[in-house]
Amino acid sequence: MPLVLDDTAVRRHLxxxxxxxAMEKALIDYSEGRIQQPLRCRIAVxxxxxxxxxxxxxxxxxxxxxxxxxxxxxSRGLPTHRATIYLSDAxxxxxxxxxxGQRITEMRTAAVSAVATRLLAAPNAEVLxxxxxxxxxxxxxxxxxxxxxxxxxxxxxxxREHAERFAREMGARATSAEDAVRGxxxxxxxxxxxxxxxxGSWLKPxxxxxxxxxxxxxxxxxxxxxxxxxVFVDSRAGATNESGDIVLSRAAIHAELGEALAGKVPCxxxxxxVFKSLGMAIEDVSAAMIVYRATVAERDHAS
Length: 303
What we know:
Strand order of the largest sheet: 9-8-7-10-11-14-12-13
Structural class: alpha/beta
CATH class of the largest domain: Alpha Beta
Number of helices: 11
CATH superfamily of the largest domain: NAD(P)-binding Rossmann-like Domain
Largest sheet: 8 strands, parallel
Order of helices and strands: EHHEEEEEHEHEHEHEEHEHHEHEH
């Protein structure tokens, strides 16, 4: 019977120190053509107003991630996002596991940004700006602290109270968006914005930006000026179809991150760089396989 791995199992077996190199491998494998991964399929759920996404991938493992987004759940005291990852044996198609995808989504997104930051940010980067103060802001701070030593962490949120709470709990300081970004070596945008919240005129020359929000072709987090810098993406196909920051700015894509990680293109890390992250199914499947394999190994050891 396939295993059912809940949030407790994911928290027990998934750690950023293991996930960051796994995400680097997934990015390289994707860019080198070793991954089959179509664009995500989206169905509108209206009423009540929301979306359902399906994201399959085949690499060293075969899997499918499903995501439901119901913004009206916020008024019901329920999560607005639900995610599940289904794993199957690539050779036989035999179901292996159903894995809770909430924390995997949170962690793999931050781990991928850590991979980009390790490659593209200045080695002596010490000032971090985070626009957004939710779950992804917290996971990004935890992940980026594994690849750079920050002496100053600044946070902005559209809701000042949320930024101040994040600052108290995470060792940061709350400020305006512009003041957070000016002089920062690394910038992270993890908001629900549909119009730009980051202006290119604020960016320090040579800084690195991880642009994580705005996952729809008509949504933006970065203005055209910010997008005129050296742009990396996780997937060209995904970015040119799904990212408003790319589509609406008509930004030139320098490379997929996996191409730069493999040394196929120059990383141009001395310039101002932007990594537009949309998230890929192979990242979720690879992370879920870490949890599955660790669970099986633990069970076999106990027996």
